[in-house]
Amino acid sequence: MTDITPDIPAELVNQRIGRLQEVMQAERIDAFLITQNVDLYYFSGSMQNGYLFIPSTGDATFYVRRSVSRARLETAVQVAELGAFRQFGETLTQQYAYLFVKGTELRIAADLDVLPAQLYLKLSELLGTSGRCELIDGSAHIRKIRMIKAPWEVSRIEAAAEVVAQALSEALNVLREGISELEWMARVEYELRIRGHIGLMRMRGFNQEITTGMVISGAAAAVPTYFDGPAGGLGLGASSPQSVSRSIIKRNEPILIDIGCCVDGYVIDQTRTAVIGGLSETLQHAYDVSESVIASAEKLMVPGTLCSKLYEDALERCTAAKLSEHFMGFGEDQAKFLGHGIGLEIDEWPVLAKGFQMPLESGMVIAVEPKFTFPGQGVVGIENSYLITEHGARALTRSKAELIVLP
């Protein structure tokens, strides 16, 4: 295993832990217990099975069940064997004796938004044996810290964007009338994988899953599903009720190409609409409005603008274009947002939605995706990912932002 080297620079890991410790001190949190794979990777640089314990002051320890040897190669954080889980509380008491002082009440935060209830109860029990401990939800603190991307993170997202641009350009050479969604998506995935896509697109939301993306055409694209987004797709059955199906791609119908890529854990998210032949007047109008909405969002995406403002602006434009009932879905299946943060997960903060009163900040990376759904006809739209800078939004997506018209 001598060829294993850390993905995330040690200096960046230490900066992240330092930022979390500053939050803990301000919020009177004594320690943080990181449990989820993605959060472990973010704060340690390793995704091995275990728990990362970060005190409000002092050094963090990554308690690893498996693989301890690999974790030591991947992270600069102190690594220790987890040992018997039933003794985890005692282990913490011994190593962090200055925290677990008899009679002291401790507030230990954890990523409870993703922690299974059974494990939460067990951890509460184990920590309770070590003193008067309260296990509280610290997930919002994690999500706020992760919103702001360091230059190294942006470089990974840009690398993923370049992979998507190259893969899409290559796969478009074989997109033709008569090919199935499934067959063409397999070609897209092949082109992505050989360029470094890890094959996963991670989501934080409970019971939310996503494949490499969605290639959905015609009426199949407008079939609603459980996925919290503007387009679902027919999928391959009730066990996989989203994205590609075995539907045949036909002339003069919209083909929604919503694909991503993950490089070193970081994702890019983009959508392009294609058509073999031409779109109907109704669908062409809706596509033109999607470009108008995203162009307006680009101008509004400056530090200080409230996230809700971008969503409100999009709604106003859709109302003026008489497309409100088709925006981001149709009827009761409409999604109530315009965009979302991306990074290690596809559904990060912030969210461009009503009530999300958080102001934009430099370092945020946001996917903006105005789309329109027409039952029986299909879905059209566009999606770009942007870095918020002090000067405004900088597009990270590389594919040309226009309707793709094939002969």
Rg computed from alpha carbons, rounded to a whole number of angstroms: 23 Å
Read across the widest sheet, the strand sequence of neighbours is 4-3-2-1-5-6
Describe the global form: elongated
Second-tier CATH architecture of the largest domain: Alpha-Beta Complex
Number of domains: 2
Could you tell me the number of beta strands? Answer: 17
Q: In CATH, what is the class of the largest domain?
A: Alpha Beta
Distinct helical segment count: 11
CATH superfamily of the largest domain, by name, is Creatinase/methionine aminopeptidase superfamily
Summarize the structure in words.
The chain is α+β, with helices and mostly antiparallel strands and 407 residues long. The chain folds into 2 domains: 10-145, Creatine Amidinohydrolase, Chain A, domain 1 (3-Layer(aba) Sandwich); 148-406, Creatine Amidinohydrolase (Alpha-Beta Complex). Helices cover 33% and strands 23% of the residues. The chain has helices spanning 10-27, 37-44, 68-74, 88-95, 117-128, 139-147, 151-171, 181-193, 218-221, 281-300, 307-320; strands at residues 31-34, 49-55, 61-66, 78-81, 105-110, 132-137, 213-217, 254-263, 266-276, 339-341, 348-352, 365-368, 371-374, 378-381, 384-389, 392-395, 404-406. The strands form 4 sheets. The chain has a 6-stranded mixed beta sheet, with helices on both faces. A hairpin with a 2-residue loop joins strand 15 (384-389) and strand 16 (392-395). Helix 4 (88-95) crosses helix 5, helix 7 (151-171) crosses helix 8 (181-193) and helix 10 packs antiparallel against helix 11. The model has no long low-confidence stretch (mean pLDDT 94).
